[in-house]
Amino acid sequence: MHPGDELDVMSPQGTFITRLEDLDGRHLVGIAAGSGITPLMALATAVLERSVTSRFTLVYTNRSRSDVMFLDDLADLKDRYPSRLALHHVLSREQRTAPLLSGRIDEAKLRTMLDVLIRPATVDEWFLCGPFDLVQLCRDTLIDVGVDRTHIRHELFTTGEPGQAPVGSVGRPVIVVPDEPVCHIRFTLDGQSADVDSPASAHETVLNAALRVRADVPYACAGGVCGTCRARLLEGDVRMTENYALEPEELERGYILTCQSHPTTESVVVDYDV
Fold it and tell me: Do 142 and 186 lie in a common domain?
C-alpha cells in the first residue's frame, strides 16, 4: 500500500443489529469482551440517540483497566445518558470493590448478574460479542432462564478451532481424476452465473470450488463465524460443518455458509445475490 491508493471494499452487511423499529421504552443489553466492544459501542450510541426513552445496559469484561478499549468514550457516553445507560466493567485480573464485577464471567457469576443487575424480563434484545466460550455461555444461560432465542444476537471473534480456510483469493488446488464422480456446482454472484465441477475425493466446500473459477467470491473468516460467504441454496443439498453466523430462520429460508457447506448431491445451485 502507498499513500493515495484506493481500496474497493464490500458494503456493510450482517445481522448484528437491532430488529426493533420502535425503540421507545425499549431496554437493550450488550455483553462484550475485549474488542467485542467495537460494534456494541456503536449500537449503544445509536439506540440512545434514536429514542429519549430507550435504555441500554452494557456489561464489558477485560483483564484489567489498562485493557479497556474506548474507556474515555464510554465514560462520555455515560455522562451524556446517565439515567439510560447502565455500564458495568468486569475485570478478571483486578479486584474491584464489588465482588460480582471481579474475576472471570462464569455461569454462576452470570446467573447472579441476571438476578441482581439485569432482570431478563425487562430486556427486549440481547447482544453478545466476544470469544466463543463467553458467547456460548451467555446464549445457553439466557435460553435456560427463559429468554427467547430470537431475541439474542451474537457475533464471534473466532471459533478457536483450526480449519481448512481458502488461502489468498484462490481456492485450494484440486486434482481431478478421470471418470471420478463429481458434483456440479452453479453459483450466481453480482448477476453473473458460473459453473465448476467438484471431485468427490476433494471433499471441498462450495466456497473453495467457487474460488477456483471466480476470485471475487465473498468470504472473510472461512470458519463459519462472520457470515460473509452466505448464499441461498436453490437446488441440491449440502452438509454444513459449522454454523456460528446464521439464525434458525435464515436456515429455514435456505441460506447456507458456503465456507462450511459440502455438497451431498450430484448438483448444487446457490445464489449469493438473493
Answer: no
Determine how many CB atoms are found less than 10 A away from the CB of residue 158.
Answer: 13
| pTM as predicted | 0.71
Which helix (DSSP H) or strand (DSSP E) does residue 39 occupy? helix 37-50
Report the C-alpha gap between 106 and 22 in whole angstroms.
33
Tens place of pLDDT for every residue, the chain, 274 residues? 789 999 887 666 667 889 899 999 999 999 999 999 999 999 999 999 999 999 999 999 999 989 999 999 999 999 999 999 999 999 998 888 889 999 999 999 999 999 999 999 999 999 999 988 899 999 999 999 999 999 999 988 765 554 445 544 456 677 777 788 999 999 999 999 999 999 988 889 999 999 999 989 998 888 888 888 999 999 999 999 989 889 888 999 999 999 999 999 999 999 999 8
Q: Which cell goes with 104?
A: 472471570
Amino acid at 43: L
Supply the range of the domain harboring residue 90.
27-156
CB 234 within 8 A of CB 270: yes
Residue 219's nearest CA partner among 98, 40, 92, 210 is: 210
The dihedrals phi and psi of 222, each to the nearest 5 degrees, come to: 55, 25
Residue 11: half-sphere exposure toward Cβ, Cα within 13 Å = 0
CATH of the domain at 51: 3.40.50.80
- On whether residue 212 sits in a domain, the answer given is yes
Longest dimension (CA), the chain: 71
Answer yes or no: do 200 and 120 share one domain.
no
267 phi/psi in degrees, rounded to 5: -145, 145
